[in-house]
Known about the structure:
Layout: E1 2-7, H1 11-24, E2 28-34, H2 37-47, E3 51-55, H3 63-68, E4 76-81, H4 85-93, E5 97-100, H5 105-117, H6 124-134, E6 143-148, E7 151-156, E8 160-166, E9 169-174, E10 179-182, H7 186-193, E11 199-203, E12 206-209, E13 213-217, E14 223-226, E15 231-233, H8 236-245
Amino acid sequence: MIKTIIIDDEQHCIDTLSIQLQEYCPDIKLTGTFRSGKAGLDAIETLKPDLIFTDIEMPQMNGFQMLEKVKNINFSVIFTTSFDQYAIRAIKFSALDYLLKPVDPKELIASVHKVKLQVNRPPAAQFDLLFKRFQHNPNSFNKIAIPTSHGFELIAVAEIIYCEADDNYTLLFLKDKRKITATRTFKEVEEQLNEFSHFERVHHSFMVNMNEINRYVRGEGGYLVMSDGSVVNVSRSRKDGLLKRF
């Protein structure tokens, strides 16, 4: 059983999520619900949960601020939030999970399933990325968190040559010749890399680091020769956008 707590300042949100967890997630053992970040902090210390659901926008102390005060985040986190694009961008940047309110049962089941598959808890550095991104510290944006089947890797963005879609996974090709399989869709990885102006989607299956292009060869769409010698196709529909970047 996954020991779980809910932290949210709105009681009706707590009630709804509690019912959904009971109905759709039999592996969850709900051990407490709390109405503030301060109460949540105390509960994390005393109950030692495996998983917390926490709202982001709460009075006095929001969900991010609460987590910053936790000395050792040795549990999984699923954020619950109304549509707050800035907060969501910060969460996606650090490859953490979130659910939009009102919570869809299918998305809830999928998020809990991800927690069950985790071999290791999210590393502290992953949360550091989240906090720095939310505080909008531009000097901190040199790495992104990439979830893999074994946990997470923190990768320097400048080391990525290009990304390729692979069904529900994404392949990242790095300068050191490594190929990393991210357990995220191509769209999710693209949303992370959109924070960096030197990445360009050139095909429905490819996104490239513009700094790592050695040559463009014309054609119907054409293709790129990357710094590692790889060839990346350019779709006809994205050709003009790429040429404008040049």
